[in-house]
Design a protein that fits this description.
single chain, mainly alpha, 10 helices
Amino acid sequence: MDLGELAHIWMIVCPLVFLGGVIDAVAGGGGLITLPAYLLAGLPAHLASGTNKCGNIFGVFLSTGRFLKQGDIHIPSAAAGAVGALAGAWVGARLNLIVPEQVLYYVMLAVVPVMAVFLLLKRNFGTEDRSGALSRGQLLVMALGIGLVIGGYDGFFGPGAGTFLMLAFTGLCQFDLLTASGNTKMANSASNLASLITFALAGEVLWSVGLPAALCGVAGNYIGSSLALKGGAKVIRPMFFVVLALLLARLIYGIFA
């Protein structure tokens, strides 16, 4: 691939990876923007998926580090969620080989609008940390289950997994949205690293695109994590609706395309 072709791909991918990084750091779901960017630039599906992991992972690491520094991660439950996500993603990938993906499109088409209505009605959702009502053991089991289920979804289908992780950490573990966001970053870091290694070993990462995109992803995640850390639920909650709208559009496209 010559420099002219690379420059054309960079012009398409880099701005969208930056935008995806901002959104992902705030509310998850940045892959709804970044993965289509690689496909739009003309990369084959598997190469796009692998390069997308390269473009996103360093930004996710940055966001995770900033949340850790601020103390906005509940480390035991986040670690349990990360372990669960790794195992769940492997199971989900295996299921992808035997279960028609179209089935999940229809299920998610019903679930996403319900989630949006729930967030509209529960205006105080995630404004307070009520995880103290659960014991340490309950939190760990709950987080492990969240990682397994949503990691399975991520391995099987993928789009919006970070958003679902955040909603689950808030709704089930009763963390506030800021802590739930931090826990999500840690779980995503683990699953993204495993995915990147898998794709790299298979030769499905275009490093000449992924590494420049990673710089844009780091910049986007830095800005997004700053917004989340400063604004908390006031910034994170509205962004959920943006991500859910993108996910709904992606599902509808997947059904009719």
